Request: fold
Amino acid sequence: MDVSHLIDGLNAAQREAVSAAPGHLLVLAGAGSGKTRVLTQRVAWLVEVEGVWPHAILAVTFTNKAAAEMRGRCERLLNRPTQGLWIGTFHGLAHRLLRLHWREAGLLETFQILDADDQQRLIKRVISEQGLDDTRFVARQGTWMINAWKDEGKRPRDIDPGDNPDLARWIEVYQGYEASCQRQGLVDFAELLLRSHELWLTQPALLDHYRRRFSHLLVDEFQDTNTIQYAWIRMLAGSSAQVFAVGDDDQSIYSWRGARVANMQAYTRDFPNVSTIRLEQNYRSTGTILAAANAVIKRNSERLGKELWTAAGNGEPISIYAAYNEQDEARYVVERIRRAVAEDIRPSEIAILYRANALSRVFEEELIRHGVAYRVYGGLRFFERAEIKDALAYLRLLANPADDAAFERVVATPPRGVGDKTLEDLRQAARSGGVSLLQTAAEASREGTLKGRARGGIEALLSLFASLRESADGDESPRLYERLEGLIEGSGLRAHYAAQSKHDADSRVDNLDELISMARGFVLSADDEAAGISEMAAFLSYAALESGEGQGEAWDDCVQLMTLHAAKGLEFPCVFMVGMEDGLFPSQRAIDEGGSAQLEEERRLAYVGITRARRQLTLSHAESRRLRGMETWNRPSRFISELPRNTIVEVRPRAQLSRGGNFGQPRKQPTQDWGDEPGIALGSQVSHAQFGEGVVVAAEGQGDHARVQVNFEDVGSKWLVLAYANLVVLG
Ligand code: ATP
Ligand code: MG
Reply:
């Protein structure tokens, strides 16, 4: 058999990994050394050379996009489809298991995924229902604690409050939240994993079935697995499956979300005879970029230790730009981008990376000003937009009548005259009867206990659902997109958004249309179909799990903006790391912490950022910066001073800063002129899809650049550009 196409071009260590004899393997190697490539080719090798059935292989990747790419590459290498091969993220795979085995998992067949936003809302409600003081028991903190417990595999009964009364209350909140999710058929992200791990623990026959099925488990980015993910893999592997793990301790950047780099050592301990292969050649970056990355990461003490080399030439030095302020920084970066594009670099080959999402705004404004197409990856995602969540709530409620969170959304938008009083009565009746809100509403309507406008509103809603359910039972059952269209029209959602202020309405109605066409183009995967998952269920979970990266147009030819965290595993010919200032990156929290653990994680993040670049790397910082409504003066990031002198050039010495161009001009004074922005005035109560509700406290700029400062109840003060913040003015 000719297997050369599976190992051609690989170096000796890579080849050894791809063609390893049966057994457990750990590939421990730095950035850009071909870990992901090796893992992909290993899958192809197993199928083609070892004769392993695709359906005996399970591969875990870090994003949906990576999963899709891996599948595509395998199919090309093997020259045939890889049906039955499970490739996905931990969340995606856990979700599939729960869909297949909802009964054993103790879930409703129609269960839906609860996103982070709705999760926090629900926890807030539980806190208030339990009569707790919500200034002391803050929903955000509760969400964080509950997720951390779940990531550790803990249920309320597993947590000992000791003599800490607050902790005891929190455990009750966790309990109440669990009960509420259970009743509504809702599963949050952490729950997906926890439940599917519990499937292994409580359903021996099922575990046995999957142990016999999967003879090979492969895991990318192993350094960022958390406790429950590791336990899940370990249980599934049992004593029979072979585990192939690849990772880099220097790129462990999710400890704040429960990831444990120690899982790499645990793996070599918990599994018998794990061989370790190290890859030392970097194929991604120039010598200069690699030297800089090596020098930075060397300062960390907690390392397994490895050094990368490259056969590539030195290439260009790394540019350091000291900006006067954040506007100047954006101007410089966008100008460089325009020049690069003029020289035939494709926009999609360029990335702007930053530590915190809030930094993207000023770059977006500048890109808009110059008509450069860009995509913010992981910002406010399409599926997180208010109008999209509204439309999906209708679909969710159709799929799962127990979903009270969806009912609450549906009953509120478009407004249908159901006031707080009526809603509270419904909630109470639902709670005491142990039934869903939708069912309670139907009963109230039958018994004629609804009054005034609420009655008409609720009856219209009920009959909309009744008619859609009926048409679904007919012979010619409508397609998913037709039902979605029916909901969006019939509920008055489209009319509601169309009636909003002109500028805003267009994009919202467009987004609704986009959703419908997405549903129209949605193809149920062969695996999902085989698992008996309906088109509607698959589409809804796609919307919930999709983190923006797989969206068709997301990777079109535009400049890519994302956080350093989101850039993990990716590579770009041309990278800008912006906002390189102490206090931003490393974060103030890491600096304040005192100890080195947090700072070392920030440094690993810097290493991840630097190693995303293939040919060109630019780091920039601003002397003064306005962020989240505050003016700050930060020193250049310590990570800049950690770069070897011979790898950098300072683009423009500080002394020249005020010369030429419009750099150094005094900042425009904020204006309070709201003449051309109907509807939003200082003091207005507004709502934002991601940040929730708040009050407009300041404003500046005009037209496309008009921005407002909103003091949000939950997340504090933020500056938002009106043109794309999609603020809804309340009341
Ligand atoms: P990261 O740690 O950032 O996830 P990685 O170790 O997974 O990186 P890959 O993304 O697999 O690295 O590979 C980095 C780049 O090097 C890719 O463009 C890949 O195609 C290329 N590459 C890997 N091995 C070789 C090789 N033997 N010959 C040529 N190019 C290679
Ligand atoms: Mg990789």
